[in-house]
Amino acid sequence: MASNALSPIGERAPTADEAYRIVRDKGTIRLSGDLRMHDASAIWREVRKETERAEGSVVFDLSGVHASDGGVMALLIELRAELGARGVKAELVGAGQRVEAIVKLYSGHDGVTKRNKRRPEGAVAQIGRSAFEVKEEAKAIFDFLGSMVLAAITLVRHPRAGHWKEVAPLCEKAGANAVPIVLLINFLVGFVMAFQSARQLKMFGANIYVADLVGISLTRELAPLMTAIIVCGRSGAGFAAELGSMKVNEEIDALRTLGLTPFGWLVVPRVLALVVVVPLLTLIADFIGIGGGVLVGVLDLGLTPRGYYIETLTAVHGWDVLTGLLKSVVFAFAIALIACQQGFSASGGAEGVGKRTTSTVVTSLFAIVIIDALSTVLFRAFNL
Amino acid sequence: MSIECKGIRKTFGDFVAVNDVSLQVGNGELVALLGPSGSGKTTLLRIIAGLDSADQGQVLFDGEDAAARDLGARGVGFVFQHYALFRHMSVFENIAFGMRVRPRSIRPSERQIRDRVSSLLSLVHLSPLADRLPSELSGGQRQRVALARALAVEPKVLLLDEPFGALDANVRQELRRWLRDLHDQLNVTSVLVTHDQQEALEVADRVVVMNRGKVEQVGTPDQVCDNPATPFVMSFIGSVNVFRGRVERGRAHLGPLTVPYPEHPGAQPEPAAGYVRPHELDVERHGSNDGIWATVKRIKRMGAVVRLELVHGGDVLEVETTRERYDALRPAPGDQLYVRLRTLRVFVGAS
């Protein structure tokens, strides 16, 4: 036992049969000598006894330690963690170079990280986080829009880079196949609108104005909206799922290595297909919705089909239909854009694709309603 | 075509995926990027392909900056880990796709495409399956289709991202051999990413061992195996026994062992570790003075070799010995055996 130079006066060096020594001095516990594995249980008992009632902070002074076995050091570190868990701050100080290496080996200087229990997020925090997420999402979509515009410009210059053959099948899938559901839903919308308003109008004997009400609200507002919602659920979700699974499958990367740009090859044909198809579906929706109104007019209000037809013609102008179609073009563009963007940002296998598909529908509906509100205000402001 | 990477660095947020990596791949060479997951090897490969862009540094193809060429003009064939075949196209169409989408001026005629696809199909031994859809093929077959698709565009560089990672051991073994034959036949400059040391050592002309975004060692399989440059390479290439300790005054004190270490004559101790492979240990019944006694814990017979797990003072030692040696000794669990080291590699510094 060479030196205990750093030990305070009065403390004796460990004797020969006692390789180590532990002395407590208020908040400081001095260890000295050799901390050997075969003494580990004794050391553990002693040190624990000394720290049993410790409060605030404890310092383990290792300056008198010549050598330490890893196992003993591990026990000290464990004890420190135990104390930490009780709220007592414990430190290992004054270790000589060789002992320091062992302290480091057992990462003794890493703070004791008390793992906080996961607390459920507060309402305010949740609102804040989701608001932030909306902002991020919107930014991603506008980034995507920018890239798409650039890609479209390149395509105009080099039309061969586009996958134009894909447009017709896409139109069929998004358009022709959607006709039955568009017919059914819009017929019912016209029917329900006429039915609900019939009772009110009957009271004033204004039966014939059902035609005006149904015609204008359908062409300007409801037909484009309902059609967009259907397309969003059918094609938007479909595009996102298709592109998303291509993305996670690395197929999009494979296209890129073959020299194709995903925008030209995948996005532009989809946007084009929807922009062509959705106004056509909306036009069909206009007619069938008015058809629903006619049915109510004839069966319930005692109108003649011809009378209803003439009234509709006088009430609904070409411009009403046109604003509806104009809106539907914007809807289509937004749906395709959001669906492709979401599909491209899928990651993490099938689960990721599912998530993106869901968020495509939610985001698209949100976008559709916003666009609808804006355009209504805009048309009104310009008296259109 | 030769590839040169100069000081490539790529970060994702705070995470440094590739940290200042420089690398050269000669014309016609097959180089393996070997490392554990998260070591940046796939990121580096994607940067070479142009699928990702580096934050810093350059990729040169034949001495020319590749960033100037767009992806299609780089002449890169890429094979993905999960095949990335186009699901709605037949095997034939998948392979033909890269040729069909070329601009009309450089597109081969329909006949040429047909001929090339059928020659590629026979190259990958899939001629009878030309009309199948990818979903109707096994994993190994799909990966061969993916390789044929990558080769169809006559790439000057072939990049393979863990191509056999998703296949079972036997198929992997077979495809590995086949890939090497194919490379000898075609001589396309190739870079293969893998986390399987066996695969890298067996297939590649040179191996680049990566760890945490850095290159640890570049060398032939023999160099990497026999002269590992760092403790990481030592422990990543095959299993290894480690003795930790310190060096001082020209000697290394490593656990139960003390060996001369003249490279460090100073009195200042430095942490060090000694590494020895299981097959570099000999076991005997009788002790001498240059080894250690250990207790047999477990015996694993694996065909021609036998693996013994020995315990010495709480540390486990793995020893690999031949069947003959094992039969001569006939150790049983609990026996004491004397272990002698044929070599010991000492690395100084905290690991």
Keywords:
heterodimer, A: 384 residues, alpha/beta, Transcription Regulator spoIIAA, 2 domains, 4-stranded mixed sheet, 4 strands, 68% helix, 8% strand, elongated, B: 351 residues, alpha+beta, 5-stranded antiparallel sheet, 9 helices
Describe the structure.
The complex is a heterodimer of chains A (384) and B (351). Helices cover 68% and strands 8% of the residues of chain A. Chain A is of the alpha/beta class and 384 residues long. Chain A has two domains: 20-105, 2-Layer Sandwich (Transcription Regulator spoIIAA); 144-381, no CATH class. In chain A, helix 4 (123-157) packs across helix 9, helix 4 (123-157) packs across helix 11 (318-344) and helix 7 packs antiparallel against helix 12. Chain A is elongated. Chain A starts with 19 loop residues before the first strand and ends with a helix. With 351 residues, chain B is α+β, with helices and mostly antiparallel strands. In chain B, the strands form four sheets. Chain B has a six-stranded mixed beta sheet, sandwiched between helices. Chain B has a five-stranded antiparallel beta sheet with strand order 13-12-11-14-20. Chain B has a five-stranded antiparallel beta sheet with strand order 15-19-16-17-18. In chain B, strand 12 (251-254) and strand 13 (257-260) form a beta hairpin. Chain B has helices spanning 41-49, 91-100, 110-123, 139-152, 169-186, 197-203, 221-226, 231-236, 323-329, and strands at 3-12, 15-25, 30-34, 56-61, 64-65, 76-79, 157-161, 189-194, 206-211, 214-219, 241-248, 251-254, 257-260, 270-276, 281-284, 291-302, 305-312, 315-322, 336-341, 345-348. At the A-B interface, helix 3 and helix 8 of A face strand 6 of B.
